[in-house]
Amino acid sequence: MNRRLKVMREIGREVRRNLQNSGQLRPVDLARRHGLSTQAIRNYEAAGILPDAERTPHGYRTYTPLHAYALRAFLALVAGHGHQTAAAVMQAINRDATEDALRLIDESHAQLLDDRHTLQAVEAALHDLSPVPHERGDTFVGPLASRLGIRPATLRKWERAGLVQPRRDPQTGYRVYSAADVRDALLIHQLRRGGYLLEQIAPLIVQVRSAGGVAPLESMLRDWNARLSARSRAMLTGAAALDAYLGCRPDPARGQADLRPVADR
Question: Across the strands, what pairs with 62?
Fold first, then answer.
């Protein structure tokens, strides 16, 4: 809370400084305050991430505190939602499609929750790990790929990387996945969902196959948890910045923006 108040006070000070300067900012002013290039500012405007700039009689761009709020909101959203979603949210707001923007935010939060469920599934899959006995129920590449929601080519890629080791049917030459292979494929799929590279997963699958314990996985699971928590916190920061931008956008009923510091409203 103290950090947010500090940010809001800094926003207020910036707004007051800008208003004392007729509320006008040059592209370079906006860029420097956020460690960006002036070309980046122009690109954001062209992409609809920032509102359209005003122009001087000589055609030079001039920005206002509203653009500073928009840029701050966008950069904060990127940290929690990624560049593509953050851009889409700002574009929707700037074309007065706020409901579309809020839906995108909701979908991003839903994906985060789904990622948490994925992590829980991985943790559950590794709980009390033991060797899988040979049993009937072998499957082929097509049905397994369909179960995982991936392409058969992806399973073949995992095989080339040594992550799954299906045997070959002596008569047809088809790949045959045992129960242990299916377990490995499920775990690989979950870890890929968690953002891990194949070369990071390979030693873990070896550990799973040997069932010698899950200690080597504990640091990965802690890191995964930490990244999800950091993303969640970043979403909170992005929400505060976006709310500040929404609060100072022009009110259609009044036709003007409320650029007073948030604490003074």
Answer: 54
